[in-house]
Design brief:
Length: 114
Amino acid sequence: MHTIVVVIHVIVSLALVSIVLLQHGKGAGIGAAFGGSSQTVFGSTGAAPFLAKLTAIVAILFMCTSLGLTFMGRQQAPSVMQGAGAPAATQPAPAAPVVPVKPAPPGSPAPPSK
C-alpha cells in the first residue's frame, strides 16, 4: 500500500509541476499590448479557467497523498522516546586486558617456572 501511494504521489507531483508551467503569468497580457504576439494554443482566455481548476484538483491530490504518506510513516516507525522510562540493562564489566608477553631474545636464560 505504501509503495502505491508513493507512486501516485510522484505522478501527481510531476503533473502539478507540468500544469503550473503551462499556465501564463498574471502579466502575460501586457506583452501583447506592446507588440508581442497574442497567438496561444487555447485562445485568448479559453484555457485559463480549465487549467486553474485542474491545478486546484491536482494540488488537493498532492496534499492528500502527502498526508497519507505521513500517517503511514508514523504507524510503521516507533517513537525514539518509546521505552525511555525503562532502566538501561546492566552489562558486566569488561575483562582485564591481556598483556602480551615479549619473547625472550635468543641466548638468554629461560625464566624460572612456578
